[in-house]
Amino acid sequence: MDPFEELERMAINATSDSQLDEDEPCAEDVSRWQRLFLYKYSEAKEKIEKHRSDLARERVSEDLWALLRPQFQGYDREAYEHKLTLMSSPSFSRMHSDQKSPKNSVSETHAFFLFRMEGPLEQANVIREALGSDSAPEFKHGWGEDGEASFCRVDSTGKAIIEQWLLQQRSSHRPIFVRESLGRKDLSGTSIYPFLGIDATLPQHRLIALKSAPEPQQNQYPV
What we know:
Largest sheet: 4 strands, antiparallel
Strand content: 5-15%
Radius of gyration: 26 Å
Shape: elongated
């Protein structure tokens, strides 16, 4: 980071928090941090004081916070800044990478979403970097309301990673994820199962030879 930008940020933080530093954290602020971050009273008070005295911290502008506030009910700007600090810490990343992700339903696990590549997500290399090795994106070209457009296809894991990445980047951009309405299928190449209304285990419904492929096949309509 440019040293002059760093000094300017420290000056802004010092000026903006000069009034807050004169008084101890109020009971309402301490209670908020206890509720949001599960701190004890003394710990929450100490964290607030440390946050306010950190002149080098990344600050969320009032304009950006005005856009984000409806999505973070119960937070104020200070609490949201602290949340971002926690999320960017190495200990937070290690803790969440070691935890087992909750089991999703079959429909959620196999869901795919499309979003338009624009704003901070306009470039394919940026999206790949944000997703890392956790999700493999597919890039498609088509037409949007304003003419030709590019789109990215991700699974439910990729969708969650993109949303988290935008929060960490302190971006106000919120892509519209459109869920694909195509039904999932996994047809067998050696059996008519799972064909509705026909028991594939009965002799008359078995294939005469392996070379006779059942229909419809995996790549055929309408299944």
